[in-house]
Specification:
The protein is α/β, with parallel strands linked by helices. The chain has 16 helices and 9 strands. The N terminus is likely disordered.
């Protein structure tokens, strides 16, 4: 009887401890997440902002959008890079000019949103802006450019976009362009890395203090950038190829080269970059067919056909739902980088509104779930602060400092 009573008493203590222990954990998550200067280095929300009826200053639930100023505040996300994304089309003068105009339109829409909601957000152009705006309770909205296609072969356009607030350029997207080869062009390499023009682009971006983004570019182009760049570089939204074998991800050797460069990889939340897909499912086959259409002909479609394609994409995803990876799967990538080259070379670049989203982090309001998972795994406060922005802003500052010299 005494033994039974003792066991009952002991189990009650253990139950009470495990139940009440949740509260200190949540308190710690909130404390650290609020203390961090958090940044997401890549979202494609401007694609929605140029469409009629979308308001980034109001709540927009998924799948309509995963990003808005309201949910950024809820999720404790202090800073973000809105990408002026243009898909790769045939490299004619007409198509280049259309991409150039679209990039400017997306930048215009970003400025306009901040003007419309001055109490919520403000355009940021320097690393110091993020902390200043955090102290004011505003979101810092930086601008990046995804795909150097709008440059054509005009080097002067780099300084033009820099003057407009663009602080990084992702050199290519899904297909080769005038700057370099892409990691996923179905026709294979064209330049075997950077083109001659691409080498000039690297030097000009170094001169201006604009960050070079190596996400999407081919392995050969990546190593060319590593040799040429005098400044640290970023992978604004890539993950680890040792875990998810997508060519868009970085190999261990590339991660080591990035660390030697003092750069940073911003881990992406897009499912196939986080976890290898199940290729046997109906969904995988249907979505593969749609991706082929997207990569080959979407950019040449009329606006009406683009809208119809987007609706087909949405319906297919709804009809064949996917079991998405989790935050735990994402943090496996952070673990890998930390164990391979150290905690100083990794951050977060979600690719929200461009395909990013996890089962338990489907929009910016749920970013603290990543902090919670890192805490569970024993990450220190210092390490978490580095992942959420410390590492990226170190690179950003260094790029500016080198240009000032």
């Amino acid at each position: 009887m005494f033994i039974k009573a003792s066991l009952f008493f002991l189990s009650g203590i253990l139950f009470s401890f495990s139940f009440n222990d949740k509260e200190p954990m949540e308190k710690r998550v909130t404390e650290i997440h609020q203390k961090a200067l958090t940044v997401d280095t890549h979202v494609d929300t401007p694609m929605f902002m140029v469409r009629e009826g979308f308001d980034v200053g109001q709540r927009n639930e998924p799948p309509r959008s995963r990003v808005d100023f309201v949910r950024m505040k809820e999720g404790g996300l202090d800073a973000i890079f809105f990408a002026a994304f243009t898909g790769q089309r045939e490299r004619t003068a007409e198509n280049t000019e259309a991409a150039y105009r679209m990039a400017h339109q997306m930048i215009d829409s970003t400025y306009a949103a901040c003007v419309r909601y001055p109490g919520l957000a403000e355009i940021a152009t320097t690393p110091a802006d993020a902390e200043r705006m955090e102290n004011l309770g505003k979101r810092a909205i930086y601008i990046g450019m995804e795909n150097g296609f709008p440059l054509g072969t005009d080097l002067n356009r780099i300084s033009e976009f820099y003057e407009r607030g663009v602080r990084y350029i992702t050199l290519s997207h899904s297909r080769n362009n005038e700057i370099c080869d892409a990691s996923t062009d179905a026709n294979g390499p064209e330049h075997n890395g950077l083109s001659g023009f691409g080498e000039k682009v690297v030097h000009e971006m170094n001169r201006l203090g604009m960050m070079i983004d190596v996400s999407h570019i081919s392995d050969e182009a990546f190593y060319d950038v590593m040799k040429l760049s005098k400044a640290p570089v970023i992978a604004s939204h890539s993950s680890v190829r040792a875990i998810a074998r997508h060519p868009r991800n970085l190999t261990d050797d590339m991660l080591k080269a990035l660390a030697r460069n003092d750069g940073v990889i911003q881990i992406c939340l897009l499912d196939d970059y986080v976890k290898d897909p199940d290729t046997t499912t109906v969904r995988y086959k249907k979505m593969t067919e749609l991706r082929k259409i997207y990569n080959s002909s979407f950019e040449s479609m009329s606006d009406e056909k683009k809208a119809a394609f987007r609706e087909l994409w949405r319906q297919t995803q709804e009809k064949y739902p996917k079991e998405l990876p989790t935050v735990a799967d994402l943090v496996d990538h952070i673990d890998h980088v930390k164990n391979l080259v150290g905690i100083d070379y990794v951050g977060i670049g979600s690719d929200f509104d461009g395909g990013g989203g996890l089962a338990d982090c489907e929009d910016v309001s749920q970013m603290p779930n990543i902090t919670r998972e890192m805490l569970k795994r024993g990450y220190t406060e210092e390490e978490i602060l580095k992942v959420w922005g410390g590492n990226f802003f170190r690179v950003f500052r260094k790029v500016e400092e080198l240009a000032a010299k």
